[in-house]
Amino acid sequence: MSTIKVAATALPDVKLDQDQVLAMGRRLLKGKVPFVDQALRVIGNAGVDTRYLVKTPDEILDNPSLTWRNGVYHEAAIDLGTRVMDELLQRSGKRADQIDMIITTSCTGFMIPSVDAYLVNRFRMRSDVKRLPITELGCAAGAMALSRAREYLCAYPDHTVAVIAIELPSLTYRTKDFRMANLVSAALFGDGAAGLLLTNEPGGCRVNQSRTHFFHGTPELMGFDLGVEGFKIILDKSIPKVVKRDFVAPAKAFLAAQPRRYPEQPMQYVLHPGGRKILDTLRDEFGLQESDVAASRQVLARVGNLSSASVYWVLAEKLAQAVRGDGFMAAFGPGFNAEMLSLAFE
């Protein structure tokens, strides 16, 4: 009976609205690419109203080196992770030495030791705390970390697990990369973090079952190539079509196999806001109402796509609304891969 007791979120300080992004895009692209108007339409139609960054756009653009950006990542990841962990402890009433396992996810920078080591030190967690950093699962990592937390609590029902997702996609933007994938990334992604605290105590949001679905023969759809100029985003435009073709049937089968604990209540959908087209596809193929994807759209509009942290933001939105009923979480990531979980909001 793994249960999400509390959720916490954190954002960096630099706020950027979409008008600023459009103006910056026009300034950077004019005279360099023949499709300025098309690129600006992509940005304008991304469904993002505001986002938050760890540095100002000019600082990021003026410092393209991987060394500088990864240094910023290191510092900001520790800061955001600390803020999330502090809120999780305060809201749950737990002490740091009561955490038995800490799982962290991130794909937008590189640290050894990983960020969890700094959190263990900062909060003086027990020396036997278990650590699981997940670094290469992209946007699906948050959902997958939640699956691993549930499995751990099945084996150790008296334990407590903290799961923290920290993503800084702004530091992966390549200033001289004028491919549409890089521009779409700039249109969608923001920086931020979120976390969950799980136990087997009653109350909260129960995590019932999970399932991974791997899409064979699709490693080229999503990911990063890492070179001297940093992270080169791989983001194929066919992703919504692949989701429609290959994800809907296994997802419906997974849902059909789950017992409905609250059949009188509407299903609560916690869907990764990867972009407007992804949400449109999921809404249409599952026969949902716009209200079913409203929380995902609100998160996308307010903070952008936060990669692995996004589904935690949507979940936090649902918890804040005090919804009741069965739930379904889904997120997609490199591989190409999907992770699904059945939930119960109690």
From TrEMBL:
GO biological process: any one?
fatty acid biosynthetic process
Q: Name one GO molecular function term.
A: acyltransferase activity, transferring groups other than amino-acyl groups
The domain of life for this entry's organism is Bacteria
Catalytic residues, per the record, are: C139 (acyl-thioester intermediate)
Give the keywords, sorted. Answer: Acyltransferase, Transferase
What range(s) does the FAE domain occupy?
A: 17-202
InterPro entries from the UniProt entry = Chalcone/stilbene_synt_C, FAE1_typ3_polyketide_synth, Polyketide_synthase_type-III, Thiolase-like
- Coiled-coil-forming residues are none
Q: Which GO terms describe its cellular component?
A: membrane
Annotated Chalcone/stilbene synthase C-terminal domain ranges read: 213-341
Q: Which is one Pfam family of this protein?
A: Chal_sti_synt_C
- Which family does the record assign? Belongs to the thiolase-like superfamily. Chalcone/stilbene synthases family.
Q: Name the PANTHER family on file.
A: 1,3,6,8-TETRAHYDROXYNAPHTHALENE SYNTHASE, HYDROXYMETHYLGLUTARYL-COA SYNTHASE
Q: What is this protein called?
A: Type III polyketide synthase
